[in-house]
Write a structure and sequence with these properties.
seven-stranded mixed β-sheet; globular; alpha/beta; 14 helices; six-stranded mixed β-sheet; FAD/NAD(P)-binding domain; 382 residues
């Protein structure tokens, strides 16, 4: 029997392992970290991601761990609505939309679907080596190796294997940096059920309710890459950045500790020309890491896993399945990455007159235009 291996134990790798298991393929999964402790805090899953998990028959288990939100609004810094998406209306057409979940809860739900010992941790791949019989030897940082017939690379934006295959595929900085945290919902915001992003002249502030009376928030400001002052910023610094924002932002920061903060620069992967390399295929952030502006990073990883398994189920030749997967995924993921990059530039405008103009134009966009954009985003060829 041919051996399949997945590099990466994040959302892409674990979902792919579940999908392949269901096709009668039991891949070994290698994760670089010593323990699977997902970076980040919370995330929103759109209807296309939930539909992907429905295809795998596990959507109900995942939905039980999160929270469905009725709307997502973009606000100006005074708290006035710029635009709103009605998740219930979208859900009637495309399925459950605007679903919030803590990353750790999603990872736990995915791990529960895999067989014992299927995931090995502490295995960071540094390079691969093709053998005369077309098998692949994976070399790990700890000096060990693993031989496989087919390799699914899901090890994230900094994938060493992708850089080996495509040496020019380096992450690019989006121009803004980000803090995240999960906190207990303050009394003033108890029962909050709507997700929002506030766009101001000093940056953006997102608020997402989670299950269990918690709130996930994120804040983005324009800054040089790897700026020491941003890396070392405390809650008091964020309070100064966002002092002109509406009261909900101030309340959340007042109830956040320095120890709660997670910081990182926002980066993505400029679209690459190829995902399939004979017996190797790239998925998830290793293939098409995107900025978070469209909320599609995890969603596209989930789509990848379902579609990859679909192609492996239809093709007797796995290399042909990898090529077919690439054909189905290149244009769509390029669309997501490019549009998310552009949206981030718009959202991070800082000149007051441009911010005023942007907000006015967004308020004028007809609902049918938003619906057309959603159709392109949420309709998937599962």
């Amino acid at each position: 029997m041919k051996q399949y291996t997945i590099l990466g134990g994040g959302i892409a790798g674990l979902t792919a392992a579940i999908a392949l298991n269901q096709k009668g393929i039991r891949p070994a999964v290698f994760e670089a970290a010593a323990d699977i402790k997902p970076l980040g805090a919370g995330l929103l899953l759109a209807a296309n991601a939930v539909k992907g998990y429905e295809c795998l028959g596990i959507a109900e288990k995942i939905v039980a761990r999160g929270l469905a939100l009725p709307t997502f609004s973009i606000l100006d810094q005074r708290g006035r609505v710029i635009t709103t998406a009605d998740a219930a209306k979208i859900g009637r057409q495309y399925g459950l939309h605007n679903f919030a979940i803590h990353r750790a809860d999603l990872h736990d739900a995915l791990l529960a679907e895999l067989t014992p010992h299927q995931v090995q941790t502490g295995k960071r791949a540094v390079r691969v080596e093709k053998q005369p019989d077309d098998s692949i030897v994976i070399h790990f940082a700890d000096g060990s190796t693993h031989r496989t017939d087919y390799l699914v690379v899901a090890e994230g934006i900094h994938s060493a294997v992708r850089r080996q295959l495509l040496p020019d595929s380096e992450p690019r900085y989006a121009g803004y940096t980000c803090w995240r945290a999960v906190i207990e919902a303050p009394t003033a915001l108890a029962g909050l059920s709507e997700a929002s992003e506030t766009w101001g002249t000093n940056g953006r502030f997102g608020i997402v309710p989670l299950a269990g009376g918690k709130i996930y928030w994120f804040a983005c400001v324009n800054a040089p890459q790897n700026d020491p002052s941003m890396r070392g910023a405390k809650v008091a610094d964020l309070q100064r950045f966002f002092q002109k924002f509406h009261p909900s932002v101030k309340t959340i920061l007042e109830n956040t500790r320095d120890a709660d903060l997670i910081w990182n620069d926002i980066i993505d992967l400029k679209p690459i020309r190829k995902f399939a390399f004979e017996h190797i295929v790239l998925i998830g952030d290793a293939a098409h890491a995107t900025t978070p502006n469209m909320g599609q990073g995890a969603c596209q990883a989930i789509e990848d896993a379902v579609i990859l398994a679909d192609e492996l189920g239809k093709n007797a030749d796995p290399a042909a399945a990898f090529a077919a997967f690439e054909k189905r995924r290149l244009a769509r993921t390029h669309f997501i990455v490019n549009n998310s990059w552009r949206l981030g530039k718009i959202a991070q405008l800082s000149q007051p007159w441009l911010v005023t103009l942007r907000n006015a134009l967004f308020r004028l966009v007809p609902e049918r235009v938003n619906e057309q954009q959603l159709k392109a985003l949420l309709k998937v060829d599962f």
